[in-house]
Amino acid sequence: MFAQTNLQLFRQLDAGPYTDDVSDAVREAYGLAVSGFSGQYRASGKTFIAHLVGTTSVLATQGERKDMLLAGLLHAVYSNADLGFHQGRRQSARKRQFVRERIGAGAEELIAHYDASTWSTASINEYLDRYGALKAAEKDSLKISLANTVDDFIDGGMCLPLSKKSRLYTDVAAQRSIVALAALTGWNATADLLERLFAEFNAARPHLPESSGQGTATLRLPPSVRRKLLPRIRGYCNRRLRPLTSAGLRQ
Fold this sequence. Notes:
It contains eleven helices and two strands, in the order ααβααααααααβα. The chain folds into two domains: 6-207, Hypothetical protein af1432, CATH 1.10.3210; 225-250. It is mainly α. The longest helix is centred in the last third of the chain and has 28 residues, at 223-250. It is globular. Strands 1-2 form a two-stranded antiparallel sheet.
């Protein structure tokens, strides 16, 4: 139903109401996603890049604008991507500038707002209670979260051993609030889909064992990369320590 590969997504955009400049921008953003999320897997074992594509596909199905598609494709860039610098830091000024230069200020602002927002039982209920008063950025962030949730469930990724994330959805009241939010957003077909997906999850839940892990994304490097990585780390450490050692000897 929704794209899971870059080729499926590009075909979806080309067949939809989008102009060439939108498709070109998404293709360029996909290149950034590939380099930033290479080797990364979600807790379900699904490749992270497939999840990003799926989230974007859900947004494209709703006809969302270009900046929303770009934000959907890179919504986890500050929390999970490896940009080559500032590892372990989220929205550093350098990271934001790096992303902004590649996808534009509008899309980057959406990502930053999404990254700073929360998706929990309390925040979901708050979105629902104050939906009419939400600012445009909050509604956009909510749409990305809804698209994210659809992709989480569409291929059964949540119907695995209960992880840290999937336990959020064991709250039936939270499920109802998410469905209601999708309807308020105007995504009526998505609301119906989420209702069905949650019903399938609830039916499977009594048979799901608890996960032994924390339900977080993982980085898996092939053996050849690991063999090359250790000498590079040693070389880096030697280069940094050599001046200090030399200074000590001179003293």
